[in-house]
Specification:
alpha+beta; 4-stranded antiparallel β-sheet; about 30% helix; binds iron/sulfur cluster
């Protein structure tokens, strides 16, 4: 008997598709999570202009391996999104370590049998003091994930469409809204 079949017999629950209720239960109440919605990936908006904002105006452009130009273009991201049927949009507390939380969630959801799961966070990568962009080799490939905006997702329109708050900040004293997205299956 192959090891894959043996594992299936030993863990029959692992092959059952996670329900929306189970996904919500895995995420709600986690430190840093304010709210979440299960959405259709077709409601995640990509746009060519998002890449401009990274390339012209963001000091992180080209500075880490999970930022442009190393990330999928908006067009590639659209194709990727169209491979999925369910996504989870998560609204985070302003102090939350979004990238670490979505990476942990991706792993937990994967281990529950959702083999396609992939997480996107918010902002640049903070796992290393400096990113070895010249080598092209990430030091923490299991945890480093791109932000939504780095992949050409219009976070403003996507969040508002899902009924979440997000505004252009007028001063540095204002509290930002951060979001993460988990593509499930
Ligand atoms: S984990 Fe380190 S090496 Fe990988 S993208 Fe982030 S900063 Fe770069």
């Amino acid at each position: 008997m192959s090891s894959t079949i043996r594992k299936s017999i030993n863990n029959p629950g692992r092959n059952k598709k996670l329900s929306n209720k189970q996904l919500v239960e895995m995420i709600k109440g986690k430190s840093g999570v304010k709210d979440l919605r299960i959405i259709s990936p077709s409601d995640v908006i990509t746009a060519a202009w998002v890449r401009l904002k990274c390339q012209f105006g963001c000091g992180g452009y080209g500075e880490c391996l999970v930022c442009p130009p190393f990330t999928p273009t908006p067009r590639q991201t659209r194709q990727i999104l169209d491979d999925y049927h369910r996504a989870i949009l998560i609204h985070f507390d302003a102090r939350a370590k979004v990238k670490a939380i979505v990476a942990d969630l991706e792993k937990s959801i994967f281990l529950r049998g959702a083999w396609k799961v992939f997480a996107l966070g918010s902002g640049p990568c903070y796992f290393c003091r400096s990113c070895p962009v010249e080598s092209g080799r990430c030091k923490y490939p299991q945890r480093a994930r791109p932000s939504m905006e780095a992949c050409g997702i219009d976070v403003f329109t996507t969040s508002r469409k899902a009924g979440f708050p997000i505004e252009v900040l007028q001063t540095t004293g204002q509290c930002p809204n951060y979001y993460g997205l988990i593509l499930v299956d």
